[in-house]
UniProtKB/TrEMBL annotation:
Topology of this chain in the membrane: Multi-pass membrane protein
Keyword Ubl conjugation: no
Name of the protein in question: Protein GPR107 isoform X2
Source organism of this protein record: Pteropus vampyrus (Large flying fox)
PANTHER family associated with the record: LUNG SEVEN TRANSMEMBRANE RECEPTOR, PROTEIN GPR107
Coiled coil start-end: none
Superkingdom of origin organism: Eukaryota
MF terms (GO), sorted A to Z: clathrin heavy chain binding
Residues that span the membrane, as ranges: 77-96, 108-131, 143-169, 181-199, 215-235, 261-283, 289-308
Biological-process GO terms, alphabetical: clathrin-dependent endocytosis
Keywords for the protein's UniProt record, in alphabetical order: Membrane, Signal, Transmembrane, Transmembrane helix
Subcellular localization, as worded in the UniProt entry: Membrane
Residues in GOST seven transmembrane domain copies: 73-317
One GO cellular component term noted in the UniProt record for this chain: Golgi apparatus
Length: 333
């Protein structure tokens, strides 16, 4: 595409101009960036510094939406995934009501997670709908989405860490080592969500955007690494217990369950933080929404598999172990 010149208007020392750019052919489709270049005058050197103020008004619009080509499907995608998360939560509630005698407190905490996720996606879809139709978000809906997103993120990591420690299944009191993990994970997760909110509400070219974007990646990795420690500690504890006490068969079954859960968490982190992220840069700009689709699908599969592994059932190694310990306590009394 050749160079274009635009007329400049001067008024009281201020310079203004405007231009229109229309994408009319397929070969012109793509991602465009707007850069500001420092033009050197006759009495200026390249290393000279000077101050200036700049007011910019930009209107970008596709034929039927103010969203970019890679974001147009997002409102429908988010509302569809919200339905699937709500459906999975409803099925989980039905299972808990059906097996009331085998339900622990952690099961109800797990039930809150898909509904919180579904609510977050609904508000996200509404936020994108207004951006698509009006070109700007409605502040109220955006704030509600950020709140539910923060709750969902904190609840997800707390639930994963509690399952990893075996809370309510094996022990009803967290150890000091487990409490330290929560003292690390919860503030980090809150900080990660704050970074996400700042990134969502900040222009990409600003200094704050790049700073918080790098911080979010680092904080998120620290959170993901921290929640693996309780699972590793539980695996080591079960390995030692299976070789010393008289419940080796149950401990080995539970050890196998924990190993599967460890692999499941690692795969979820690897896919959502690395594979899907790399795909975001590998696909054409029209298919950028595939990153969000794969991320939400991976989260849904992770929820379903976690629920299946730790479902309230008589053949669950967790429940068998808890019942035997309760019987021993009753005999000692």
């Amino acid at each position: 595409m050749g160079e274009k010149s635009f007329s400049v208007h001067k008024n009281d020392g201020a310079v203004s101009f405007q231009f229109f750019f229309n994408i009319s052919t397929d070969d012109q489709e793509g991602l465009y960036s707007l850069y500001f270049h420092k033009c050197l005058g006759n009495k200026m050197w390249s290393n000279d510094k000077f101050s200036f103020s700049l007011d910019i008004e930009i209107t970008e619009k596709n034929p039927d939406s103010y969203l970019s080509a890679g974001e147009i499907p997002l409102p429908k995608l988010y509302i569809s995934m919200a339905f699937f998360f709500f459906l999975s939560g409803t099925v989980w509630i039905h299972i808990l009501r059906k097996r009331r005698n085998e339900v622990f407190k952690i099961h109800w905490l797990m039930a809150a997670l898909p509904f919180t996720k579904s609510l977050s996606l609904v508000f996200h879809a509404i936020d994108y709908h207004y951006i698509s139709s009006q070109g700007f978000p409605i502040e109220g809906w955006a704030v509600v989405y950020y709140i539910t997103h923060l709750l969902k993120g904190a609840l997800l990591f707390i639930t994963i860490a509690l399952i990893g420690t075996g809370w309510a299944f094996i022990k009803h009191i967290l150890s000091d080592k487990d409490k330290k993990i929560f003292m690390i994970v919860i503030p980090l997760q809150v900080l990660a969500n704050v970074a996400y909110i700042i990134i969502e509400s900040t222009e990409e070219g600003t200094t704050e955007y790049s700073l918080w974007k790098d911080s979010l990646f680092l904080i998120d990795l620290l959170c993901c690494g921290a929640i693996l420690f309780p699972v590793v500690w539980s695996i080591r504890h079960l390995q030692e217990a299976s070789a010393t006490d008289g419940k080796a068969a149950i401990n080995l079954a539970k050890l196998k369950l924990f190993r599967h859960y460890y692999v499941l968490i690692v795969c979820y982190i690897y896919f959502t933080r690395i594979i899907a992220f790399l795909l975001k840069f590998a696909v054409p700009f029209q298919w950028k929404w595939l990153y969000q689709l794969l991320d939400e699908m991976a989260t849904l599969v992770f929820f379903v598999l976690t629920g299946y592994k730790f479902r309230p059932a008589s053949d669950n190694p967790y429940l068998q172990l808890s019942q035997e310990e309760d019987d021993l306590e009753m005999e000692s009394v």
